[in-house]
Amino acid sequence: MSERAEQAMTPDDSELVRRHLSGDPEAFRALYEKYREKVFASCYRIVGEYEAAADLAQEVFVKIHGELRRFKFESKFSTWLFRVAVNHALNKASEVTRHARIHEKIQKEGRGDPGGTKEGRPLDDHVHRAIRELSPKLRVIISLRYLDGLSYEEIAEVLEISMGTVKSRLFLAHETLRPLLKDVTLENEG
Amino acid sequence: MNCELFRDRVFDLLEGTLGDRAPFEAHRASCPACAEATRGIEANEKALAAARVPLAPASLWPAIAARISQGRALPFRRTKIAAGLAAAAALLLSVALFFSGPHAKPRLDVVIQEVAPEAGRTMGALVPRYEDVDTATAMADTLFR
Question: Measured between alpha carbons, how far is A18 from A13 in angstroms, rounded to an integer?
Fold first, then answer.
């Protein structure tokens, strides 16, 4: 069965949350399966290092499991999930980014494997290095917009900021990325 | 139209959600800085869309399930429990030593300070209201039951 077909058959998020709260042990696993890649990818974009992102994603899901009883069904589950994930990742970002930079330095000096991106495509590495140059708040905006595909309204809701702030941060993020991504864009289009 | 307004709405312009594009297009045509910023956003968006993020590791769920099944007993919390039990054990030992001697009852904090200062600090944090040996003994007995 294709991933899309499986998703179409999946109960909606609210139903899964209700089942989880009424004791269904499979419901949380279903929520995890549905959102693991998005949560992991958000963590990866924010902290920029594979192992750290895995640790962070693990912490986010444990936190969500513990806090699901506080979910009030007033917003979309995905909005609430992203809010928990982003806030947790932001709290950890500076610590993890410092750690990642040390690992990157070690890698450059040829003394070890930092785990890195697990990818190896120059484009991916280039883009992720550029994103790491952004402040954590700008990284989050870029991640929510271009990775998770959230609308400006949804980003505003997740981050609990105004639409105007979303757009001004996004513009600032692009201005910062422009010189950093100029070469990679040209290389890959040429 | 000015640069500030243009930049406020540049994402709407690029997404085609502006009601009246004409003033924005005119500004872009006449302002090299805004034109360059717009081209930069378009180029960035292409690079961001093309970059892949690695998949989550397969070991993620087992790790989450293990932590959930522990009742979210994080290492930090386990450490605190162990410290509390160690403190209780030290307290029992000190109480037993105390009752085996002929002297009068000293204050609990004096006994603990002599036998196990570290345990005393932990116990003090756990049960600050226990001021005397008899009450603390009863509490420790409850802990071990």
Answer: 9
